[in-house]
Specification:
The chain is α/β, with parallel strands linked by helices. The chain is built from eleven helices and ten strands. The chain is globular.
C-alpha cells in the first residue's frame, strides 16, 4: 500500500497507478472490523482502493467529543497493510490541505438533515456533506462504501451525490456487530467493560420489538424500547424513531405505509457520556397481506 498525506500526493499516486474503477472508503480512523469489511468489499469490486483517515472537525458540534475521539494512525495502518495491494492508497490529509481552496456551495437536503441526528447535533450533517464532497473531489471514486450503522448519513450522502450530479455509486454495507450485538463503532473504545457488556440491551431490545402488525402498535413498541434501555443503569435514550429509507419520514401510529419502502428503527443512546447509535429494519405484517 502507499501513503498520501496531501491532495497533491494522492493525485500523483492515482495518476501513476493502474487504471480502472477506484473504490473509496472514507473513515475517521480508530479502525475496527466494520471498517475493514468496507475495505474488503471495495477490494473485491474495484481495481484500486483508497481509504481516507481524517477526523473531520466541522461535523462535531461538541468540542469535547472531537478532542476525545480515538486516534491511532499507527494501529490503523497495521490493520490495513495485510489487506491492501501495492497500488492501493491510504489518504491522511491535514485540515489545512483538505479544506484549502474549498468552494462554497448550497445544497438543499430536503429536510433529511433536520431529523434524528440532525435534530440533536446542530450542524453535524452540514459538516459531513462538506468533508465528503471534498474527499470525493480529491479521490474521484467510481464507488464509495458506507456502513448502514450511519443510516441517516448514508441517505444524505446519496442525496448529495444525486443533487450534485456526481457519477459515484454509493454502496451500503451491513452493520457489523460485536458478539453481544453492540454495533461496532470507534466510540466503543471509550466504553468501560461493564458498559460495553450492558450495551447489548440496545440491539436486543430493538430486535425484539421490530416485528409489528401495523403502525398502530408503534407507541407500545416505543415505550417498551425506551423503558427497557432507560432501566439499564447508566443508559439513557436520546431519541427513537421509525423512518422510511427514502426521505426519513417518521412513521406514526396512523401512518399509511408503502410496500415499495423499507422502514428502520433508529436510536441514539447515552452510555454515561458516550453516545451510541444503532438501527434495525422494522417489518409490518400488514404490508405482507
Amino acid at each position: 500500500m502507499k501513503l498520501a498525506q496531501s491532495k497533491l500526493a494522492l493525485r500523483e499516486l492515482l495518476d501513476m497507478g493502474t487504471a480502472g474503477t477506484i473504490g473509496f472508503v472514507p473513515t475517521m480512523g480508530a479502525l475496527h472490523q466494520g471498517h475493514l469489511s468496507l475495505v474488503e468489499k471495495s477490494i473485491s469490486e474495484c481495481d484500486r482502493t483508497v481509504i481516507s483517515i481524517f477526523v473531520n472537525p466541522t461535523q462535531f458540534n461538541d468540542r469535547r467529543d472531537l478532542e476525545r475521539y480515538p486516534r491511532n494512525l499507527e494501529q490503523d495502518l497495521s490493520l490495513l497493510e495485510p489487506l491492501l495491494d501495492p497500488d492501493d492508497i491510504v489518504f491522511t490529509p491535514e485540515y489545512s490541505d483538505l479544506y484549502r481552496d474549498e468552494k462554497s456551495f448550497e445544497l438543499d437536503l430536503e429536510g433529511l438533515d433536520k431529523v434524528m441526528e440532525g435534530k440533536y447535533r446542530s450542524g453535524h450533517f452540514e459538516g459531513v456533506v462538506r468533508v465528503v464532497k471534498l474527499l470525493f473531489e480529491a479521490v474521484r471514486p467510481g464507488k464509495a462504501y458506507f456502513g448502514q450503522k450511519d443510516f441517516q448519513q448514508l441517505t444524505i450522502i446519496r442525496t448529495m451525490v444525486r443533487k450534485l450530479g456526481m457519477a459515484i455509486d454509493i454502496v451500503s454495507c451491513p452493520v457489523l456487530r460485536e458478539p453481544n450485538g453492540l454495533a461496532m463503532s470507534s466510540r466503543n473504545e471509550r466504553l468501560a467493560p461493564d458498559q460495553r457488556s450492558a450495551a447489548s440491551v440496545i440491539y436486543r431490545t430493538l430486535k425484539e420489538n421490530s416485528r409489528l402488525h401495523s403502525p398502530s402498535q408503534l407507541s407500545m413498541a416505543e415505550k417498551i424500547i425506551s423503558d427497557t434501555i432507560n432501566s439499564t443503569p447508566g443508559f439513557t435514550v436520546e431519541y427513537f424513531d421509525v423512518v422510511d429509507n427514502v426521505n426519513l419520514r417518521k412513521v406514526s401510529p396512523g401512518s399509511l405505509l408503502s410496500p415499495d419502502r423499507q422502514y428502520f428503527g433508529c436510536i441514539a443512546v447515552y452510555a454515561g457520556e458516550i453516545r451510541l447509535i444503532d438501527n434495525v429494519e422494522f417489518s409490518f405484517q400488514l404490508l405482507k397481506g
